Amino acid sequence: MADEAEMSFSVDTTEFKFGKIREKRNISFRSISLNSDIFPGPAIKIERAKQHLIEFEKELPDFIDKIKNNIKYYYEEKSDEIVVYVYNDIPIPKNLNVIIGDIVHNLRSSLDQVIACILRKNNIDIKWDHGFPIVDSKEMLDKIINRKLRGAPDCVKEFVLRLKPYKAGGCEALWLLSKLNNTDKHSDIVPIAVATPEVRARIGVPMAFFTQEGRFGIGACPPGGALLGHQWGLLMPEGARVVKLNAGRCEVFRINSKISMFEHHIFINFDLRFGGVGMLKYGNIADIIKVIISVTERVVRSAERFIDGGR
């Protein structure tokens, strides 16, 4: 087996950052007055969901830091590749599941309470199956909206239809809220840890160099010189993919050792995502929750204007 010390390949653990790419997003919230006479219940539930999110984001870094300490790499002689992996023996704290469940429950029930408030304003008795409809498609919404808003004026139905509370061609954030809430009620929301690697390499142009004095030359690079292009950080994302960090050794990335003569840096983003078929694509949990909170707030504020307008 080749001696790792002879390879100019390194994994820079100082560069491991949680949510490095996605943290650039800045999602802000618009506060709903807790003194609102129109929707006091929904407003309180949304504020409570925000407090749960703060709690979630405080506890998450400790878990991520423990995973970072388990990053390793080795030379695989058979494939002549350098393999970067994470040995994951850190279980996801169970209370994170509970916090997420509390968040989605408060948000989902706030929407149902909005409908209840509107119906009461129109002197309609609230039944167990009244509520804010969220379904998979517009066709399904057309089938159930009359039952969910039974007795409500047509303008209320038009208001809900404009919000497009369905997945296919509608507001997917509302659909995801409903899916997560149903999962939490009937089973368990299961977050999974994932790693997304990036590889940056400094690769120079062969037989072209700059001397220490800054002169350009052709041929073998002299001592103290620098290959042309060596200062460029070249991203090689084609080998990057989202990797589920299951228990045990989880390979994150591998690279052929023949190019290890160039300086490489591995950047790994760690985060938690929702488990389940098709759920990884939504990104990290904290960002998803922020989007859902923001959308829920906009729905409530729109409903406030709807009521104030005397519709």
Written description of the protein model:
A hairpin with a 5-residue loop joins strand 4 and strand 5. The chain is α+β, with helices and mostly antiparallel strands and 311 residues long. The chain has one domain. The model is unreliable at 1-27 and 231-238 (pLDDT under 50). It has helices spanning 40-68, 94-121, 138-148, 154-163, 172-186, 285-308, and strands at 71-76, 81-88, 191-202, 205-210, 216-218, 226-228, 234-235, 243-244, 248-256, 263-274.
Can I get a quick summary?
The chain is of the alpha+beta class and 311 residues long. It has six helices and ten strands.
> Considering DSSP H and I runs of 4 or more, what fraction of the residues is helical?
25-40%
Shape: elongated
Q: How much of the sequence is in beta strands?
A: 15-25%
Q: Overall pLDDT, averaged?
A: 78
Uncertain regions spanning at least 5 consecutive residues: 1-27, 231-238
Number of helices: 6
- Category from helices, strands and their pairing: alpha+beta
Number of strands: 10
Question: How many angstroms does the end-to-end distance come to?
Answer: 77 Å
Count of structural domains = 1
Oligomer: single chain
Topology pattern, helix = H, strand = E: HEEHHHHEEEEEEEEH
Estimated radius of gyration: 26 Å
- Describe the biggest sheet? 4 strands, antiparallel
List the helices and strands and how they pair.
Layout: H1 40-68, E1 71-76, E2 81-88, H2 94-121, H3 138-148, H4 154-163, H5 172-186, E3 191-202, E4 205-210, E5 216-218, E6 226-228, E7 234-235, E8 243-244, E9 248-256, E10 263-274, H6 285-308
Antiparallel strand pairs: 1-2, 2-9, 3-7, 3-8, 3-10, 4-5, 4-6
Helix pairs in contact: 1-2, 1-6, 2-5, 2-6, 5-6
